[in-house]
Amino acid sequence: MTQYPKHIVAGLLFATYMGIPVVLWALAAQSPWASSGSSFRSAGQLAGIAGACLFSLNFILAARIGWIEELLRGLPRVYSLHHLFGGLAFILLLFHPVLLGLQYVSQSLSLAADFFLPQPTDIPRLFGVLALGILGGLLCITFFLRIAYHTWKSTHQWLGLALLFASLHVYLMPGNLSQADGLRPYMVAVIIAGLLAFGYRVLFGCWLVRRSPYVVQDVEQHADATEVHLSPAEQALRYKAGQFFFISVQHANGITREPHPFSFTSASASAGISFAAKRLGDYTDTLGRLRKGD
C-alpha cells in the first residue's frame, strides 16, 4: 500500500475541510456572478465561509493535539500554520462584510451605510460585528504590540469569545447558509469543533490535559544560562532525545504559571529531567528563582 508523505495528507485534509462548504455553497447558488451586486455578494459569502473555517481550524491547531502534531511533523510546524491561518482568517473575515456592503453602493450610499451600521434589533449581524471587532483588536495586539508573553497569552484567550459570537452569527444569519443543503450544519459543526478545542486546552485544560508532577532538585547558574534538574513526584515521563516538554511552575517566587516549552538536556534513560535556558526574556530571567522543592 502506498504511503504518502504526511505533509501531503495534511494538505489534503485542510483542502477538504475548507472545500466542502465552498462546494455546498456553489451547488445552492443561482447565477452568483451575474451582476456586480451579485458578484460582491458571492465573494463576500465565500470570504465569510472560508474565514470562519480557518478561524475554527486555528483553535484546533492551538490545542496541541498529539495526532495533529504528528501529522504535521512537529509542533513548530503546527504553530507556523496557526500563525499563517490566523492572519488569513482575519483578512477573509474582514473582507466578508466589506464585499457584502459593496453590493449596495451602486444602489444607494445610505443602504451601504445601514449595512455597516446594523440596527440593535438585527441580532445576527451584531454578533458578526462583535466577533470581528474582538478578533481585530486581539490580532492587532499580536502583530503590532510588544508585550510580555503572559500578558499576550491572557488577551489571546478572548479569541474564544469571538468564535462564540461568530458561531451565533453563522447559526442565526439568513441567506445561502439556510438555502444550501447541509451548509449551515457543516459550518456549525466546524465552529463547534473549534469551541471544543478551545474548551479542551484553555477552559478545562487543568482537568482534561494530562500533566506529570515534578520537583526541583537543583538549580545551576551559568554565565548566561540557567540549568534546572527535576525529579518525578509520581510516574516519570517517557521521552526521547531531542524532544521538548511544556513546564508550568507552581508556587514559586515571581515565576508565572504560564506553560513554556524547553528541550530535554537529560538522557532519556535517566530517572529525572534536566533542561537549560539562556536568560533572554521575561520568563527565562526568572528561572534562577527556582529553589529545591519547588
If you had to describe this structure to a student in words, what would you say it looks like?
- There is one protein chain.
- The protein has a three-stranded antiparallel β-sheet, with no helix packed on it.
- Helix 1 runs antiparallel to helix 2 (36-62).
- The protein has eleven helices and five strands.
- It is elongated and about 70 Å long.
- The mean pLDDT is 86.
- The protein has helices spanning 6-28, 36-62, 66-71, 75-102, 109-116, 123-144, 149-156, 159-172, 176-179, 183-203, 205-208; strands spanning 214-221, 225-232, 244-247, 260-263, 273-278.
Topology overview:
Layout: H1 6-28, H2 36-62, H3 66-71, H4 75-102, H5 109-116, H6 123-144, H7 149-156, H8 159-172, H9 176-179, H10 183-203, H11 205-208, E1 214-221, E2 225-232, E3 244-247, E4 260-263, E5 273-278
Antiparallel strand pairs: 1-2, 2-5, 3-4
Helix pairs in contact: 1-2, 2-4, 2-10, 4-5, 4-6, 6-8, 8-10
Contiguous uncertain segments of 5+ residues = none
Strand content: 5-15%
Number of strands: 5
Class computed from helices, strands and strand pairing: mainly alpha
Biggest pleated-sheet summary: 3 strands, antiparallel
Query: Counting H and I runs of at least 4 residues, what is the number of helices?
Result: 11
Shape: elongated
As a percent range, the share of helical residues equals: 55-70%
Question: Reading side by side through the largest sheet, how are the strands ordered?
Answer: 1-2-5
Task: Give the gist of this structure.
With 294 residues, this protein is mainly alpha-helical.
